[in-house]
UniProtKB/TrEMBL annotation:
Belongs to the FAD-dependent oxidoreductase family. Residues 70-165 form the Rieske domain. Keywords: 2Fe-2S, FAD, Flavoprotein, Iron, Iron-sulfur, Metal-binding, Oxidoreductase. This is Apoptosis-inducing factor 3 isoform X1. GO terms for cellular component: mitochondrion. One of its GO terms (molecular function) is 2 iron, 2 sulfur cluster binding. InterPro entries: FAD-oxidoreductase/Apoptosis (IPR050446), FAD/NAD-bd_sf (IPR036188), FAD/NAD-binding_dom (IPR023753), FAD/NAD-linked_Rdtase_dimer_sf (IPR016156), Reductase_C (IPR028202), Rieske_2Fe-2S (IPR017941), Rieske_2Fe-2S_sf (IPR036922). The lineage of its organism: Eukaryota, Metazoa, Chordata, Craniata, Vertebrata. One of its GO terms (biological process) is execution phase of apoptosis. It comes from Gymnodraco acuticeps. Residues 24-59 are annotated as: Disordered. It comes from the Eukaryota.
């Protein structure tokens, strides 16, 4: 990728808007979006891209006023491998130059709205700087997760050394598009106890599985059953935004699911599977037969043993209703968080501006020691202490003390007693697979479902994905691992759907997760389980650092705060199948201590060379 040792020339961008007088473009755009729609365009300087409305020849009723056109820069203003966010008057787009050709796509990641201009451009796709989603720059299609939507693309041409973008106004405003989906062609009574594909769960694995099936042309019945009473929602936000409603967090509306013939049955808890009859039995007595089954039930809270199990105002954060209750009950009250998981710590951070006091109980010496190492854990712990969170580490709960059924105190095994009006237990989770124990599906000793690289279980026609599985992980020589990340669940859902359709594809993704506390975001990519060393560059006290997790002589994971897009850049290298050597990171680490900006620049160039 070019441009590593040079900066784009500063340029004053003159925006020239015009509405085309004729509809001569209607017949000029090829289906793949590659051909320039203008006869006088320079053929080697433009890619004729379209939005979701532009990707096929436009019907004659499309009017020029639906589009905007702008001259956004000189042809020499961008070097190969560079991106620029440009204003078209009715909205903004991301202009990209790669291999001498220009392309234009929406400028925001549809997942959380990250500016893609700050992301990583490599080999025909751009990777989001915040959470690692990848988009094809020629089609706008989502190539790696998280998220559900793709990007609109826009027509680009070069005229008299000016780069001109033509875009649909609506696409500029929406900044996202859904892939076309098939509809169910079968005439089926909704009360029929049979589904060609039955999905248990409504998280990202379940939802992506259903949507991928429709995107790939599946026209038979799909039924998605969930214990929840809400349509699919963004669970990671629960612990970060306690007052958000289910509607604010929703991933897809009921209307969206209905429009694409994805049937959703809420408050349906699976209690057993009968492999002989290929059916699932639910708690309310419903029996649903299937041809293909996808199990994506996620995880459930780890059981804790203590006195006072019947005391109220003790929560496991599972639903928007739980989050809303926690926020309401903690207002100007005393809150206690049991456990230093990411969920527990995010809840603690979210409550500091609401509660009178926030206390955290943990069994380790510092939070996140196992996942991030002691040094990073200590640095994050200091952030909490500055924000008046009190820690009681190397401790466990012995009793929840109530008065008239309401929580009043939390007693610790050390003898310490904490005032508490609300308690949130965030002490980890286990796979929600209890209903499978007598079902004949192979699970490991911890209760995780074992699947192959196509997400198939030991039972014919049964697939599984998300937090409930252990699966072959190529970077660890196909060792079966459990990676309970929101992003990875998306990947599993797509892999399972493609496998059901007979189009199995191996999982080629880099695990990616994030956590937000006190307005600061931790990003993490890779699989660091069993790391034997941590190389830290930057300033831990200022929480502006990059931590490289190594195993033997290779970097297996990276975490950072305030150093975007370094994690996405490392993910791009690891995703290409290349390795980052420990000795190389150590070399840059020494230079970092002398000249931070310079060493960071050269390390960026090192990563680019490895992509």
């Amino acid at each position: 990728m070019g441009g590593c040792f040079s900066k784009p020339k500063p340029v004053e961008v003159k925006v020239e808007l015009s509405l085309l007088e004729k509809e001569k473009e209607v017949d000029g755009l090829s289906p793949n979006g590659k051909a320039s729609p203008f006869a006088d365009s320079r053929p080697n300087g433009a890619l004729g891209h379209g939005s979701d409305d532009d990707s096929t020849p436009l019907p004659l009723y499309h009017k020029p006023r639906d589009y905007v056109e702008a001259s956004v820069c000189h042809v020499k203003d961008l070097e190969n491998g560079q991106m620029r966010e440009v204003d078209l008057g009715s909205g903004r787009a991301l202009l990209i130059k790669e291999h001498g050709e220009f392309s234009a796509i929406a400028h925001k990641c549809p997942h959380y709205g990250a500016p893609l201009v700050k992301g990583v451009l490599s080999k025909g796709h751009v990777r989001c700087p915040w959470h690692g989603a990848c988009f094809n720059i020629a089609t706008g299609d989502l190539e790696d997760f998280p998220g559900l939507d793709s990007l609109p693309i826009f027509q680009v041409r070069v005229e008299k050394d000016k780069v001109i973008i033509r875009a649909n106004k609506q696409a500029l405003q929406s900044q996202k598009r859904s892939k076309p989906m098939a509809r169910c062609s079968a005439v089926i009574n909704s009360n029929t106890g049979f589904s060609h594909v039955l999905i248990i769960g409504s998280g990202p694995a379940a939802l992506v599985c259903a949507e991928t099936l429709r995107q790939e042309g599946f026209t038979d019945r799909i039924v998605m059953c969930t214990m929840d009473r809400h349509p699919p929602y963004d669970r990671p936000k629960l612990s970060k935004s306690l007052e958000s409603t289910a509607e604010q967090l929703r991933l897809r509306s009921v209307e969206f699911l209905q429009d694409h013939d994805i049937e959703l049955l809420t408050e349906k808890e699976a209690v057993a599977i009968d492999l002989k009859t290929r059916s699932v039995i639910f708690e309310d007595g419903l029996r649903m037969e299937y041809k293909k089954l996808f199990i994506a039930t996620g995880s459930k809270p780890k059981t804790m043993i203590y006195k006072g199990q019947d005391v109220e105002n003790v929560f496991h954060l599972r639903t928007p209703d739980d989050a809303n209750s926690i926020a309401r009950l903690a207002n100007n009250k005393n809150a206690v968080i049991v456990g230093t998981s990411f969920v527990g710590m995010e809840v603690a951070a979210a409550l500091t501006d609401k509660a009178h006091s926030v206390s955290v109980i943990g069994i380790e010496t510092v939070p996140f020691k196992h996942a991030l190492g002691e040094k990073v854990g200590k640095a994050i712990m200091k952030l909490f202490e500055v924000n008046r969170v009190k820690f009681y580490m190397l401790n466990e709960v012995s009793e929840m003390v109530g008065q008239h059924g309401q929580l009043k105190e939390v007693a610790l095994k050390s003898g310490k007693v904490l005032r508490a009006d609300v308690c949130v237990i965030g002490a980890g989770s286990i796979p929600a697979t209890g209903f499978l124990k007598q079902g004949g599906i192979h699970m490991d000793s911890r209760g995780f479902i074992t699947v192959n690289k196509m997400m198939q279980t030991s039972a014919d026609g049964v697939y599984a994905g998300g937090d409930v599985v252990v699966f072959p992980f190529p970077p660890r020589n196909n060792k079966k691992v459990n990676i309970p990340h929101w992003q990875m669940a998306h990947v599993h859902g797509r892999a399972a759907a493609l496998s059901m359709m007979g189009r199995a594809a191996e999982i080629k993704t880099v695990p990616y997760f994030w956590s937000a506390m006190f307005g600061k975001t931790l990003r993490y990519a890779g699989y660091g389980e069993g790391f034997d060393d941590v190389i830290i560059q930057g300033d831990l006290d200022e929480l502006r650092f990059v931590a490289f997790y190594t195993r033997s002589e290779e970097v297996v994971a990276v975490a950072s705060m305030n150093y975007d897009p370094i994690v996405s850049r490392v993910a791009e290298v690891l995703g290409s199948g290349k390795t980052i050597k420990k000795r190389d990171v150590e070399m840059f680490s020494k230079a970092w201590q002398v000249r931070t900006n310079t060493s960071m620049f050269y390390f960026k160039c090192y990563l680019i060379d490895h992509m």
